[in-house]
């Protein structure tokens, strides 16, 4: 992930937000979607993505479904009810964080 | 351009031979690698699967093997979290209390030898539960190895040793404190092992639910 230290803390929020907008997604699809949305600025490595997905799954925020696609098994992730609620909280937290950082870095825009 | 069944099998075998031994971890890696190779081929790399695969592995093999370790850590964390969640279940302290009462009643109504003999089989009860669930699951899943299922063995082995710490005190049982520690310890060990059996079944069932659409 580029600028990894700055983005690292927001990885779960990014995943939750994407899953909130899509019914279900698989790992590679998430990495490509992020790359596309950020025009290549943010590249999530599988080393960062999958542990985050598994952590969210263990916390009960994501549900998993395995399907056979293109001659192989594919693991899809989707939000649980708790995950949907947590997404709202996480996005609010992130918005608050951005606002605070803006007040610090560029007070005129805050 | 989609990869053929043989290409997918090749990736699966390659990862299996690279010590990515668990089917659930490999499944996700195979899909990731295959998706990336397909994307490269669709972007104009026309050299054929094996050349693109070789390039991919030169660039990413070290990362993939490191990911395997991360996946295993995730499996351990999943077990830990599920276990803690189950411990918070109100039934768990009730189970502990019921076992304490059961052992006390047994102590009151049987000889010391019988009481000791019963306590000595405590570790085996939990272990038998795990072995039975494990064997049944492996039978259902065609002997494929699954990370969470196999790594459940570590906490079972740890808890298997736990009763020994308390059973040492059964040698004399002269004082009330010895009886308290023996019954409390055996009940605690058995409770923890039964909770492990419960979460084993739950985790096995969650695998089943994930794979329910696969024929």
Automatic annotation (TrEMBL), chain A:
InterPro entries: Metal_resp_DNA-bind_regulator, Tscrpt_reg_PadR_N, WH-like_DNA-bd_sf, WH_DNA-bd_sf. One of its GO terms (molecular function) is DNA binding. Pfam families: PadR (PF03551). Residues 15-86 form the Transcription regulator PadR N-terminal domain. Keywords: DNA-binding. PANTHER family: PADR-FAMILY TRANSCRIPTIONAL REGULATOR, TRANSCRIPTIONAL REGULATOR RV3488. This is DNA-binding transcriptional regulator, PadR family. It comes from Winogradskyella thalassocola.
TrEMBL record, chain B:
Keywords: Membrane, Transmembrane, Transmembrane helix. The chain crosses the membrane at residues 87-107, 119-137, 149-168, 180-205. This is Uncharacterized protein. It comes from Winogradskyella thalassocola.
